[in-house]
Amino acid sequence: MKAVVYKGPENLALEEREVPEPAPGEVLIETKAVGICGSDVSIYYGNFKKIEPPLTIGHEGGGVVRELGEGVDWPKEGTRVAVSPLDYCGKCEYCIDARYSLCENLKTIGMIEREGEYAEYFVAPARNCHVIPESLEWRQAALIDTLAGPVATIERRNIPVNSGVAVFGAGPAGLFFARLAKLKGAGEVYLMGHNDDRLELGRSYGADRIINTHDTDPVETILEFTNGKGTETVIEAAGSEQASSQGLSSLAKGGTMMVYGIVESGPVAVSMEDIALDEYELFGIADNTHGYNQAIELIGAGEVEVEPLITHQFSLSELPDAFSRHLMRDKKEGYIKGVVEL
Known about the structure:
InterPro entries: ADH-like_C, ADH-like_N, ADH_Zn_CS, ER, GroES-like_sf, NAD(P)-bd_dom_sf, Zn_alcohol_dh
Shape: globular
Strand content: 25-35%
Order of helices and strands: EEEHEEEEHEEEEHHEHEHEHEHEHEHEHE
Domain Enoyl reductase (ER): 8-340
Keywords: Metal-binding, Oxidoreductase, Zinc
GO molecular function, one term: zinc ion binding
CATH class of the largest domain: Alpha Beta
């Protein structure tokens, strides 16, 4: 089979590999579509340190179950599935508490000690499979993982009805956060970013006010429109030091800041005094497992549109070149989200 293998920083190769055999508790899946995640871009440039090359990457995909490993009676062969990528042990204290991303023995498809989905076939734990309806196109299914993270985040801390929400980051996750906030009954939703096209798209995802942070100070603007109060919820989905700092400064007293973006540049300075005296609540989340089924339902019901985000489509053979041209990193050609279809 063909597979796209990460061999080191800025080195992806299309290779011929053996079709893997499913181990006990696993299934073999014929890949149909895989979303290109921002973490794949981080891997490509050598910024994700937990990966050990060579490794087939890709983890936002799905396909058709073709073979069952020993002890598996579900899903049946021929089932259409999306696959959540976290391979957790199920035995440690974190797994018992259903906090799978904190598993002491965690492996992750396409990232940590497990071959990924940029391949014609891949294996995955049967428990990670989520059935997707026939009505969902494969390219749509490739964004289930992208939506599942925001869904799981919002479900951890519900958004008060008619409250203000500030979303920093106008990428796919940020746009999904804006839409989910509106579905939860939020009042004014502010969307921050620095790409005008993405910000304009944000209006269709529920953003009431869009702010280009290259031109406008988002903190001043949010405080102005909230009479100096700030928003009850801030969602950091940009993964930048500046957005993290601005987000905290935009938060109303007693508010909640959801930290979803990963800042790769290093530690972010925060005022512990402000956190204590203004009773801010900050929490991070890295586990999207609990959001998968709801994400499938939302896309299937048309509650969250994914098609407007899919700007590029690739075959496996085209993928290494797309990375080498820095298409995804530099957001060339109006890039928002890419999908690999097989």
